[in-house]
Amino acid sequence: MSEQSKSSQDPDHTPRVVIAGAGIAGVQTAVALREAGWRGAITLLGDEPHQPYDRPPLSKALLLGPADGATFDIDFAALGIDLHLGRPVTALRPGAHEMDTAEGPIAYDHAVLATGADPVLLPGSEDRAGVHLLRTLDDAERLRSVLAARQRVVVVGAGWIGAEFATAAREAGSTVTVVEAADRPLAGALPAEVADRMTGWYADAGAELRTGTRVAAVSSGEVALADGTTLPADAVVVGIGARPATAWLAGSGVALSPQDGSVLADDQLRTSVPDVFAVGDCASFPSARYGRRLLIHHWDNALQGPRTVAENITRGAAEGVVYDPVPYFWSEQFGRFVQYAGHHEGADETIWRGDPAGASWAVLWLRENRLAALLAVGRPRDLAQGRKLIEKGAALDRDRAADATLPLKAAAR
After folding, report:
1. 3-state secondary structure of 193
2. How far apart are CA 366 and CA 305, in angstroms?
3. How far apart are CA 299 and CA 25, in angstroms?
4. pLDDT digit string, tens, across residues 238-287
5. Taking the model in full, what pTM does it have?
6. Strands 283-287 and 336-342
7. Which long-range contacts (CB under 8 A, 24 or more apart) does 187-193 make?
8. Which residues contact residue 332 at a Cβ distance below 8 angstroms, ignoring those fewer than 6 apart?
């Protein structure tokens, strides 16, 4: 039900949107609601005591410099956004239209679930001194002191976060060993023929990469691997993935994925219960573009999804807006700017642009002759043009697409 229709039924009632989570998805939803014309109340609930901040710098600039630039430059009071810090939501009760917190329940007309994702922990290391995660501002602050001391660091996990932290640690002068259970870095994100081209980046930066081995135990000053090797470690950084932060929704009636625990939002980011939406890292959604449900743990999704939620709350169900973006993310690692757009699973052809042994190259994935995804290393123009081609569903001329001297847009048929 739209704001206008609720207000017409009860002129004295001020409709309220309550947003659980004050990360980028929650903050952007609050701001987007005002931009979309929402005139009711907005309550934003954050777990942490800090003013809302951006997360991408945590694994990049903030590890080596001050945290001042991370805080969002938003005047919440001026926008009429009621911000509560250090007040996590503990339960959702759709029948009563209330969210529970330690300070008491908060009634809502519309609720937005934007609780993000929780890092996966290394079994047996939860309470170990010297074991770190990199998910929050406090995590980054603790790790900054580790890097300042130029300690011996073992990074568990060679995914995006692991590579970015290893990059910062090497820049700070730390000795770095990265341990990955899979046979290559980025095993869960990219095909082997692409990820294999990135393996040498670690050695080039002076970091040791050990693949195909698991961590058996972490103790004071060392990490024991399953192959019997013991690595000296003044600090251990765990980056082995994240899961949607949805455990608090147990018993709420909100449908969750049995595979990954994400909120099963529809193509308008509505959940299975009335008047409740979900956005960002905690939610998956069906993509008509790719013919499958997507769970995207990247900044751009947390930035774009809130606009759809805001429009759908403000307009009401009769004028729903569908969310079907071209996924996008970037990573800065070992002196390279890596960008990705689209979704390569289901592609039936791969095209290389440039020499992957060089400083700049790209790989394209096609499905039925149309560009479905691309990875660009040091080629931002390819990424910008490719993203537009994916949005258009453009077919490509293969020979022109493979010619790295031509603009990628010149390959469109």
Report:
1. helix
2. 26
3. 9
4. 999 999 999 999 999 999 999 999 999 999 999 999 999 999 999 999 99
5. 0.93
6. unpaired
7. 187/158, 188/159, 188/241, 189/159, 189/160, 190/344, 190/375, 191/344, 191/350, 193/350
8. 60, 164, 167, 338
Nearby residues of 305 by Cβ (< 8 Å), 6 or more positions away: 25, 269, 279, 280, 283, 323, 325
Domain coordinates in residue numbering, the chain: 3-118+242-319, 131-238, 335-411
Distance separating alpha carbons of residues 129 and 221, to the nearest angstrom: 9
Give the phi and the psi of residue 214 in degrees, each rounded to 5. Answer: -105, 160
Q: Which CATH class name applies to 131-238?
A: alpha beta
Cα distances (angstroms) measured from residue 262 to each of 185, 249, 298, 392: 25, 11, 14, 29
Dump pLDDT digits (tens) for 362-384: 999 999 999 999 999 999 999 99
> Do the two domains 3-118+242-319 and 131-238 of this chain adopt the same fold?
yes
Dihedrals φ, ψ of 199, to 5°? -60, -40
Share above pLDDT 90 across residues of the chain, in percent, rounded to a whole number: 83
Could you tell me which CATH number the domain at 3-118+242-319 has?
A: 3.50.50.60
335-411, superfamily in CATH?
FAD/NAD-linked reductase, C-terminal dimerisation domain (3.30.390.30)
Single out the residue of 55, 21, 19, 45 nearest to residue 34, CA to CA.
19
The crossing angle, in degrees rounded to 10, of helices 137-148 and 160-171 is 40
- For residue 171, the tally of other CB atoms under 10 A from its CB is 14
353-391 residues labelled b (16+ CB within 10 A) or e (exposed): bbebeeebbbbbbbbeeebbbbbbbbbeebbebbbbbbe
